[in-house]
Structures are given as C-alpha cells and as structure tokens.
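Would you kindly consider the sequence and fold I have copied below?
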Amino acid sequence: VVALKILDPQLAKDQEFITRFLREARNVAKLKQHDNIVEGYDFGESNGKYYFAMEFVDGRSLAEILYGKGKVDEKTALHITRQVARALQHAHRFSIIHRDIKPENIMISKAGVVKLCDLGLAKDLSEDFYKWGGVTVGTVYYASPEQSSGFKELVDIKSDIYSLGVCLYHM
C-alpha cells in the first residue's frame, strides 16, 4: 500500500510545476529512510502523467487533529515537535530546508509516529537553480519573517525551526 501523488494535468502543462513536483520526489529520495520523514519509493512520468509513489501513513495530519480538538496536551505537543525536529535535523544534514512546515505537512500514524511530508517547496542548498526572486514561499501563518520578506538568501534551517515553533504554539 502506497500513497500516490499525481500532478494535476493542468499543472503538468507548466514546466515550473513539473520541476517543483519532481524536486519534491528527488528531495525525499535524497533523504533516504528516516523514521520521521515520509519515505519516497518511485517517481517519474508515464503517458504524460507525473507521479510520486511514497509511504502511506495510516493516521491523520496534525491539522486534522487540531481542527478536531482545537489543541493537544503539552506532552503530546512536545512529542510531536521533537519528532519533527529530528526530521529537520536529518534534512539539514543533506542541506535541505523544508520551507513549508505547517500542521497539514505533519502526519501522525495510529502508532504515534510523526512523519514530515510534502517537500514540494524544499530548497536544496547544495544546488543553485531556484529562481524564486521576491516571491514568498510557504504558508503565510507559519512562515518565518525572512521567508515573508521575500529574500531567498536569508532562508535557512532557522526558518524551519521558526515554523516548527509556530506549530508548537498552535498545538
């Protein structure tokens, strides 16, 4: 059983969306197996459809939990935050900044394992092909001040830590 992400056919007409979609798959593959990052299995194109097969997390997103309960207890919030921090630490070892840490991108399995997902906006600091210019990347409520400023050169691991802190506050 896998989760299958397929690029919308309308978006597949735009090379920038194709590039971003395939970047997510490459970033997940680059991170290899980590307990707190959704594992990627395969990606590519078949008959004009771009796909990304990844680990299926049997559970709910943190957003679903928060919208249902409104908040979580302190112990659970710290447990979730710790696991996401481990995922970010691992990604940082590979020079990857997520840039979109938010409850919708944090999955929690029925067994309580937290998985960071959706690396579609991730920035690989080891490569220099991002052309975001003055465009803010990320979700506004969780974006760090440097992300909101639009200056891509200021975005680093601290931006992800800021966003994780906002998630902790939200919890």
Notes: The radius of gyration is 16 Å. DSSP finds five helices and eight strands in the chain. The beta strands are 2-6, 40-46, 49-55, 59-61, 96-97, 106-109, 114-116, 123-124.
